[in-house]
Amino acid sequence: MRVSAETSGRMSVLVPLCVAQFTAADGALAKFKATGPYSRENVVSEFVKSVASTSMDYSFAKACATGIETEIAKTAAKT
After folding, report:
1. Which of 4, 14, 41, 74 sits between 20 and 30 A of 22, alpha carbons compared?
2. pLDDT tens per residue across span 22-56
3. Are 22 and 68 a contacting pair, CB within 8 Å?
């Protein structure tokens, strides 16, 4: 249980950093939007290799992809 809490805590810090790093990359958002929902973690892994010395793995990429989707939804709601 402790490991799960530590992982969750780290992800809450790392995911926003991943989202910022991803959205700053040229062409990343366009490719993300053009990709199907089941392959988006692959796009994240393509543009972001690591965040704060944490290597990108599947679960981290999936969490980051979810964060990016949330960010896109927020931006769309503002316009």
Report:
1. 4
2. 999 999 999 999 999 999 999 999 999 999 888 99
3. yes
